[in-house]
Amino acid sequence: MIDMLPTGATIGILGGGQLGRMLAVAAARLGLRTHVFDPAANPPAGDVAHATTTAPYEDETALRTFGATVDVITFEFENIPTAALDVLETCAPVRPGRNALRVSQDRLTEKAFLADLGLRTAPFAAVDDEVDLAEAAAEIGLPAILKTRRFGYDGKGQARIMAAEDADQAFADMAGAPAILEGFVDFSHEVSVIGARSAAGDVACYDPGENEHAGGILRTTTVPARLTGAQRTDAVLVAAQILNKLDYIGVMGVELFVTDAGLLVNEIAPRVHNSGHWTQQGCSVDQFEQHIRAVAGWPLGDGTRYADVAMENLIGEDVYRLPDLAAESGASIHLYGKSEVRAGRKMGHVNRVTGGTRST
Ligand code: AMP
After folding, report:
1. Which among 266, 273, 274, 275 is the best mutation to test ligand 1's pocket, defined by most ligand atoms within 8 Å of the CB?
2. CB–CB of 55/65 below 8 Å?
């Protein structure tokens, strides 16, 4: 029997960006408190959390003080330093656990994990030096993409190698960081599944969303995605397999490439995911509540999709469209409370219900 956190219990959230903010709002709706830990002052989540700690992840005293105030710890990003986890795990359960972080922090470990599960990915090889790169390119073929193994997001830390003469520049772009070469996948479109697993081991997945990127950053997610019934089932089963193998507790994003030969897994994110924001207007229980339910030891909620939704990210100067958006009927606006507008910065998003009530 799993204990359900009661009203007034506190969930610690590592990272106070927009994902932490929306998790804190969802927790508050369930009568739970949140304590946000972020190295930066005045994080977006700080506006809505019960408490905020501003300290670096290397500050063991601050981690312990934070850990003493919370009943469970979760996170909004995957690059938590291992040493911080060592400390926090002695204070309260960390959900999802260390294994999910270990697998998703390193693209090579992640690909090897997925291949072990029998799931399909782009062909890949480790690249530590120029000799590895030449061998990997010969084995995998070109075009290919060289990516840093760690700390890549929104297309950062990636270089395309279209022809052999691009290899030197791509290697230089990695700035000495261990890398992975991936064969270029000829996909028709990209989809993602937001899946959840409870502490009791139940799994629920949202309907897959179709994602469009520009400059490596997610622009839109649309549901329903263009998928056959068989592909939709396959996508959900892939996510469930990953969740179960990791003994996962919480919400996870699984990005997939749709190809003529079926679905390939691009990457997994052990957290709520930008491509799941549509659930706020498309489901009774959105991804943020689902994650809070899971880490708080509650049963999962009903994630059935009851509407067609288009989610549009507001990136950088897009946020200046606010007067028009605010006047647009049917636009559900979510702003993250970030005062400084910067190019490429996610400032908010808009969900638009585009189609009638229906379930899948
Ligand atoms: P990632 O950071 O791995 O999610 O990559 C960012 C984006 O680059 C993806 O959403 C794809 O659009 C593209 N991309 C990444 N890996 C590949 C690949 N192996 N083949 C083709 N496109 C890719």
Report:
1. 266
2. no
Q: Ligand 1: distance of its center to the CA of 170 in Å?
A: 15
**pLDDT beyond 70 at 145:** yes
Among 67-71, 171-175, 185-189, 254-258, the least confident range: 171-175
In this prediction, residue 152 carries a pLDDT of 76
Give 126: exposed, middle or buried? Use CB within 10 Å, 0-12, 13-18, 19+.
middle
Indicate the helix (H) or strand (E) that contains 101.
helix 98-105
Q: In the chain, what are the domains?
A: 10-94 (3.40.50.20), 123-183 (3.30.1490.20), 189-355 (3.30.470.20)
Mean of the pLDDT values across residues 317-340? 97
Helix 98-105 and helix 107-116: axis angle, to 10°? 110
Q: List, in sequence order, every residue forming a beta bridge with 54; answer none if it has no partner.
A: 38
- Helices 287-295 & 18-29, crossing angle to 10 degrees? 70
CA distance 189 to 221: 11
Question: What torsion do the CA atoms of 157, 104, 80, 34 make, to the nearest 10 degrees?
Answer: 120
Q: Among all chains, which residue has been given the structure tokens 């999709």?
A: 305
Q: What is the pLDDT of residue 157?
A: 86
Q: Measured between alpha carbons, how far is residue 196 from residues 10, 55, 191, 241 in Å?
A: 21, 30, 17, 11
**Residues 6+ positions from 62 with CB-CB distance below 8 Å:** 37, 53, 55, 56
**Which range has the worst mean pLDDT, 146-160, 256-270, 275-289?**
146-160
Ligand 1 centroid to residue 148 C-alpha, Å: 12
Kindly tell me if the per-residue pLDDT of 1 is higher than 60.
no
pLDDT value of position 126: 97
Q: Token digits for 279?
A: 């659930």
Q: From the alpha carbon of 153, which atom of ligand 1 is closest? A: 2
264 lines ligand 1 (CB under 6 A): no
Q: Which of 319, 254, 272 is nearest to 15 (CA)?
A: 272
Identify the CA nearest to 358 among candidates 300, 289, 312, 309. Answer: 309
